[in-house]
Specification:
Largest sheet: 6 strands, antiparallel
CATH topology of the largest domain: Glutathione S-transferase Yfyf (Class Pi), Chain A, domain 2
CATH superfamily of the largest domain: RecF/RecN/SMC, N-terminal domain
Distance between the termini: 24 Å
Number of domains: 2
Helix content: 40-55%
Shape: globular
Low-confidence stretches: none
Radius of gyration: 22 Å
Oligomer: single chain
CATH architecture of the largest domain: Up-down Bundle
CATH class of the largest domain: Mainly Alpha
Strand content: 15-25%
Number of helices: 12
């Protein structure tokens, strides 16, 4: 899978750009705050329908403008494709795939796949379980549309249950309606848990091997999906889910929210048997995050038959020259979009296409 062209209009500080990309390594370099990250961010938007940096679409529109437009053309094993996104102040985001408007975000998933890595991605390791669940959910939504819809239905049912818990005046009042949402939560939550767990089982050996390579086998990375809801099959998980929701109902009414379920699950990450989140150094946190991202590449190729596009936003400064070279020459089949504050030497970058960005203008070099 490769991005062949990016066209932008009034996108952040990029007023009007059209960039044709190379098949392998593409380097966008220049000083800070010139528009490098903004440009590669537009590719991610066309991948999952939202920015990796903000949840507010209005932040993506150039200051003083009413509308922004992004078009990304790409090739995959299915042929050529095009995704267009239009953002307008006061209006709903409009997305079209191959000139056909889509009405639901789930319809976008799977056309253009990408993996995004920046220094901020260290939060996958260092911050709350929500970041690790998000890491799993983004990958699973790209590779499995059914997962996207299950997760969406689960979140809606959970919101309804929490709303009931928040405003119910008594247990008798709550029992009249809560079972409806409990059933939906258990059914859809079981699907979410089963698919997250299966994904982690695939990810585990690859991440362990990748981390061993990055650390010269000095560190053993262990990864496990951790859930309060047990069970092997979807049916068993759903039944256990129902029981936990029922047993916790009085507690949840006191708390005014649902205390157990896949919205509280986590991914355990250990180095040599020690929790990396709690005891890992900054270097170990960064390397673990990179190991997960490289493992994602191989998982995607196994699931969809080709690599996704890899977006590396300002990550080279975190790596020594040897690891830079190994990363940028990961596989000839992989397309990389890299941002950097300075040009990257040919010794490290090899055969690449380079673009200099200054004041929102991208110039091929």
């Amino acid at each position: 899978m490769r991005v062949t062209e990016i066209s932008l209009s009034n996108w952040r500080n990029l007023e009007r750009q059209k960039v044709a990309l190379g098949e392998q390594l593409n380097i966008f370099y220049g000083d800070n705050a010139q528009g490098k990250t903004n440009l590669v961010e537009s590719v991610y938007l066309c991948c999952i329908g939202k920015s990796p940096r903000t949840d507010r679409d209005k932040d993506l529109i150039c200051w003083g403008k009413d509308k922004a437009f992004v078009r990304v053309r790409y090739t995959s094993r299915f042929g050529e494709g095009e995704i267009c996104v239009t953002l307008a102040n006061g209006s709903k985001k409009q997305i079209a795939v191959n000139s056909v408007p889509i009405s639901r975000m789930g319809e976008l998933m799977g056309y253009l796949n990408c993996i995004y890595f920046s220094p901020d991605e260290i939060k996958i390791i260092s911050q709350s379980p929500a970041e690790r669940r998000r890491f799993l959910d983004i990958d699973l939504c790209q590779t499995d549309k059914n997962y996207f819809y299950s997760l969406s239905r689960f979140n809606k049912a959970l919101a309804q249950r929490n709303n009931l818990l928040k405003f119910a005046k008594s247990m008798d009042e709550l029992k009249e309606t809560v079972f409806v949402w409990d059933e939906q939560i258990a059914e859809e939550g079981a699907k979410v848990i089963a698919k997250r767990r299966a994904f982690c089982q695939k990810l585990k050996p690859i991440a362990t091997s990748t981390h061993g390579t990055l650390t010269d086998n000095k560190e053993l990375l262990e990864l496990e999906y951790v859930s309060q809801i047990k069970g092997e099959s979807n049916r068993d998980i759903a039944q256990n889910y129902r029981e936990i929701l029922a047993n916790n109902l009085e507690k949840d009414l006191g708390l005014r929210y649902t205390s157990a379920g896949c919205q509280r699950d986590d991914v355990s990450l250990k180095l040599n048997g020690i929790d990396v989140r709690t005891f890992g150094s900054q270097g170990q946190l960064r390397t673990t995050a990179l190991s997960l991202k490289l493992a994602e590449l191989k998982i995607f190729k196994d699931i969809i038959g080709e690599y996704p596009v890899l977006i590396l936003d300002d990550v080279l400064s975190e790596l020594d020259p040897d690891r830079q070279k190994r990363l940028l020459n990961f596989d000839d089949e992989l397309q990389i979009l890299l941002t950097a504050t300075a040009d990257v030497s040919n010794e490290i970058a090899g055969n690449s296409c380079k673009f200099y960005i200054k004041k929102g203008v991208c110039t091929p070099k």
